[in-house]
Amino acid sequence: MILVRFVEIFTSIMIAAIFIRAILSWFVQDPRNPLAMALDQITEPILAPLRRVVPRMGMIDITPMVAIFILIAIQRLVAAYAYGS
Predict the structure, then answer these.
(1) Which of 4, 7, 28, 50 has CB 3.0 to 4.6 Å from 82, enough for a Cys bridge?
(2) What residues does 24 pair with on adjacent strands?
(3) Residue 73: is its pLDDT beyond 80?
(4) What are 57's strand-pairing partners?
(5) 3-state secondary structure the chain
(6) Contacts (Cβ under 8 Å, ≥6 apart) of 51
(7) Residue 71 in contact with residue 65, Cβ under 8 Å?
């Protein structure tokens, strides 16, 4: 159960970090911004592999949305397996 709870917390944190990074990218243009740099370091290990697979939609990078959907799916699969629902 500790592993299940860890996965739930980890995926929730990653979803929030990816969401905040996406929103912040609309407003903060300075790549040296400490918050932007921290979020880049946290989320890039998940987003970088997906960028090689997910095509861009014109000027829009939908990789964060795909990553969030995958993390939600992982959360639900782990919860269903652990709690038997």
Answers:
(1) 4
(2) none
(3) yes
(4) 60
(5) CHHHHHHHHHHHHHHHHHHHHHHHHHHCCCCCCHHHHHHHHHHHHHHHHHHCCCCCECCECCHHHHHHHHHHHHHHHHHHHHHCC
(6) 61, 63
(7) no
